[in-house]
Structure formats: structure tokens, C-alpha cells
Amino acid sequence: MRKIVLFMHTSLDGFAAGPNGEMDWIHVDDEIFDFAGNQTDDADAALYGRVTYQMMDAYWPTAADQPGASKHDIKHSQWYNGVEKIILSRTLETNNLKRTTVISSNVHEQITSIKEKPGKNILIFGSPTAVCSLLKENLIDDFWFFINPIVLGKGISFFDGVVDRLKLKLVSNHFFSSGVVCLQYSKS
């Protein structure tokens, strides 16, 4: 069965964004891009909420073609253009979307059906609304937390009010020279 794998940056105090949605505190560099890029090799689908999908789709299809495109831009653009996209949205029109499935209802049934099809992992990058929907339905299998060395004090949490308790098992950890730590967990 395919797994749904969440990649999420967090602060030390567990926030995914500042109080107004700001994410300027997230540290990314070539070392982190290379690490995350290696994980995309194990995935053939990306899952997004509508807002994140529209943001990603505005950039990634042509990112590799831009002057001065980085190694990461080229690799992720190629991956993005080759994978199936799954979008949770009640408002997105499905006309002319190639290799894209839009799910607007029956999330548990439809995602479970997709997970049962042959294939590799399904990755989620961000998408707080979609993540909340999937958490409520207990559909996320692996969690990769990129913990940034910052305390925000307040902000937006993916988990607040979504789950009462979620027991996880540590699978691996990775330390970056920037001070960011990646902790990989699976449901126990």
C-alpha cells in the first residue's frame, strides 16, 4: 500500500507558520534541498490543498527552464511535471488539469482508494488545510519534521484542535549544518 508522507517545517515550539501565516523564519539551503530531493525519488504523487497547489503550479512547471535555475529547481521541476497531483478542494475546476485528481468530498474513501493502487509514496509539502483534513481522517502515514532553531512564541499549528493524541515512532533523524534537525516518524 502507498504511504502518505508529510514534509513540514516547524519551529522549536511546534508552529508551522507565524501568527499571520509568515514563513520567513524557515531555513532552506542546498543541503536541505538535496536531502528532501532524495526523498522525492520514492514518490510518484504529490498531494496539495487548492491554495498550495495553485502556488506550486504557478512556479514548478517552468522552474527548470528559467535563466539561472538552481540544481534544486531543475530536479524538483522535473519531478513535479512527472508526478500525479492530488488536490483537496471544494472550489477548483477540474478542466484541462493533466495527471491531476481533484477530491472535493468523501476524502477518506477517495484517498484510501488512491493509496491502495500500485505506486510509490504520496508527498505533502505544506498545505495546512489539506493536512488537517487528512489528520482528521487518520490518513497520514509518515511525518518528516524539519525543526528550525527558532522559537516563535505563537503561530499556526497543523495539529491544534485536529487530533487529541497522535502516537508516533521515531524512524530516523538527520542533523543539518544550519542547525535544522529532520525527525522522521511513522504512526505506531
Could you explain how this protein is built, in words?
This protein has 188 residues and is an alpha/beta fold. The protein has one domain: Dihydrofolate Reductase, subunit A. 28% of the residues lie in helices and 27% in strands. It contains five helices and eight strands. The protein has helices spanning 30-40, 50-59, 71-82, 107-116, 128-136, and strands spanning 4-11, 43-49, 84-88, 100-103, 121-125, 142-148, 168-175, 181-187. It has an eight-stranded mixed sheet with strand order 4-3-2-5-1-6-8-7, sandwiched between helices. A hairpin with a 5-residue loop joins strand 7 and strand 8 (181-187). Helix 1 (30-40) runs parallel beside helix 3. The radius of gyration is 16 Å and the shape is globular. The mean pLDDT is 91.
